[in-house]
Amino acid sequence: MAPLNWGLGHATRCIPIIKALLQHSCEVYLASDGVALSLLQKEFPDLTAFELSSYKIKYAEKGKNFKIKMLWDSPKVLKAMANEKRQIKQLVKTHQLDGIISDNRLGVYHKKIPCVFITHQLNVLSGNTTWFSSKMHQGIIKKFKECWVPDVAGKPNLTGKLGHLKKSKRNIKYLGPLSRFEKQDLIPVYDIMILLSGPEPQRTLLEEKLLEELKQYRGKVLFVKGKIESAQHRETTTIGNASVTVVNFMQSGELEEAINKSRLVVSRSGYTTVMDLAKLEKKAFFIPTPGQYEQEYLAKRLEKQGLVPYATQDNFSISDVGRVAGFKGLTQFDTTMDYASLFSAFSNVKENSEPTSSSLST
Q1: Which of 81, 87, 208, 361 ranks highest by number of CB atoms within 10 Å?
Q2: Among 223, 255, 262, which Cα is nearest to 239's?
């Protein structure tokens, strides 16, 4: 299993798939870099992990420069993809892998074994270059045996035009929204939970802005920075009239409980976060990453549907969270995943209702 290290979302949405593979007696290898790999190693400490070449993705400090920064960094991405291909070739040979699941890692592919690509972006929004970026991405997807989209095929859905094409493709399978969490009916403890993630420097810029805004808030706040470090650090302090508990990171079980105990979640509008909050049926307020077209599209779409309000990072004020009362909040989709059928994409995982012994490694 090889998720892209672009924030934490790609790694966290792989967690339910990894658990299902293990339940089907598959041997699973982890492969990524940076915080994505660190998170999966904390979640699955007994699994063998390999570090892949980093894409070295870093956002521009100003949203208007996002596309320019991505173009400027494209040679580094292409170099990382080339390195990935060499690394995967060696891993397949050394460990006799039966299959590969790549979550948006473009170079994690081997032509001699079944390879699956996970993405919610069949269309890649990039402003006036959307047509080109979408065609490029779809061309990469075609190399893979299957493309798994974590959404429903019909309407209503969560991704809109991101995850749906006007003409369906044969190798696309819709999984339904993926989440590592389960809804619990718990007594609320926190008025607001702030949940951060994503590449720097935008993660830090939002952290600093929110800590400043909390000086004007009265209530109990849980502030999860989304910084995966060797040890967890927790501190409760007073900011203005707010009691704020600051935590650098939480693992799945603790994070699930914390979100369920929060009345409202303030976060980026990354797609994995949207899926998680829909599964937990939470009210939320979104602040999309400046210049990231996908997050801006999702935030605008959900506000237009009357589900979740949003504000730009520059214009956000803590008083904006009061708007949430006028929105419905996110709700989960009633979907059932037949993992045995899904994993039949790999030659050694048979389509059965019960887990089977297999040497599948992903």
Answers
A1: 361
A2: 223
